DNA sequence: GTTGAAAAAGCGAATCT
DNA sequence: AGATTCGCTTTTTCAAC
């Protein structure tokens, strides 16, 4: 190997080094933390932190920022997981692109197992879920299996980014 | 009814009115948007926006802010969905609390269907997934069924908050 | 990475509609 | 009640070191 990468006793910590991981961890837990606070927490100057955050954004390590919302309060009280399977398994599998235009689909995961993708959807009511399922089937040529979410004990807990040595 | 709530042709838009929904939508898409920009996008004064955002935070409509991170880059390249089912169905169901201390569990959904909860987990490697699954089974007295995520076409798309009339 | 200064944004109180 | 204007403070941002 020509390059020396971050590794430690068999555990690979990814291409982001210690201080950067601290920054990412802090911002994942509080996306609006100021550069001033970030500097205090990391022991760096404000400018140094600023520079690192911009670099992390540019490299795509930080992909963006989001407010975490109460979906009940904004009229989207119904969450569901929709597993999909192509009706014609020999057809090209471009379901994610075919579904990207549909509002209400929050995420699309390609998975191992019986089905090919799991979608996470948020809608306003059972009728809206029904309509969305019809659109999913029609748009992607798939069958669907839906698991309705009854309640959400917790969600979006900040990631357990490891801070061990490089 | 004594109170008049937001309703429109059979569609209930939640307890958050038009302009507030605009604000929430904008912040969900860009959690670091400045109050100045927010004011421009909504046609309000900066102070008015400021006041509304604080109120939305206090009411819990905005629950927090988070940086969206590239999990591969920070050493958590393995995502999975873990469906759990109590081994003893007559025992009290407090799985969410019993699992809350475990790092690596990002979300916990109570669901309708064969299993009782779906967990979303992020770990660094297959071995770490194995260890986490053992901890889940031991901590909550459940059996697990795991669906490994192979790739993530998209995730955390901003919610389709409706902006129709109240 | 650091310091330091200018520009921008955040924030609270008083005022007005 | 809710929006606006006014100042002051903090943060952001961009120089040069």
UniProtKB/TrEMBL annotation, chains A, B:
GO terms for molecular function: sequence-specific DNA binding. PROSITE patterns: HTH_ASNC_1 (PS00519), HTH_ASNC_2 (PS50956). It comes from the Bacteria. InterPro entries: ArsR-like_HTH (IPR011991), AsnC-type_HTH_dom (IPR000485), Dimeric_a/b-barrel (IPR011008), Tscrpt_reg_AsnC-like (IPR019888), Tscrpt_reg_AsnC/Lrp_C (IPR019887), Tscrpt_reg_HTH_AsnC-type_CS (IPR019885), WH-like_DNA-bd_sf (IPR036388), WH_DNA-bd_sf (IPR036390). The keyword Transcription applies. SUPFAM superfamilies: Dimeric alpha+beta barrel, Winged helix' DNA-binding domain. PANTHER family: HTH-TYPE TRANSCRIPTIONAL REGULATOR LRPC (PTHR30154:SF53), LEUCINE-RESPONSIVE REGULATORY PROTEIN (PTHR30154). This is Transcriptional regulator, AsnC family. It comes from Thermostaphylospora chromogena. The lineage of its organism: Bacteria, Bacillati, Actinomycetota, Actinomycetes, Streptosporangiales.
């Amino acid at each position: 190997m020509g390059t020396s990468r971050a590794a430690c006793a068999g555990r690979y910590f990814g291409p982001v080094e210690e201080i950067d991981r601290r920054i990412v961890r802090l911002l994942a837990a509080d996306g609006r933390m100021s550069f001033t606070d970030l500097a205090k927490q990391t022991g760096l100057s404000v400018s140094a932190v600023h520079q690192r955050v911009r670099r992390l954004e540019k490299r795509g390590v930080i992909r963006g920022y989001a407010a975490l919302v109460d979906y009940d309060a904004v009229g989207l009280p119904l969450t569901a997981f929709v597993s999909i399977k192509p009706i014609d398994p020999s057809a090209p599998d471009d379901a994610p692109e075919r579904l990207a235009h549909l509002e209400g689909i929050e995420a699309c995961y390609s998975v191992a197992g019986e089905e090919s993708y799991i979608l996470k959807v948020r809608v306003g009511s059972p009728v809206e879920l029904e309509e969305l399922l019809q659109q999913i089937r029609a748009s992607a040529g798939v069958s669907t299996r839906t698991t309705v979410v009854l309640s959400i004990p917790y969600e979006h807990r900040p990631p357990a980014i490891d801070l061990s040595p490089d």
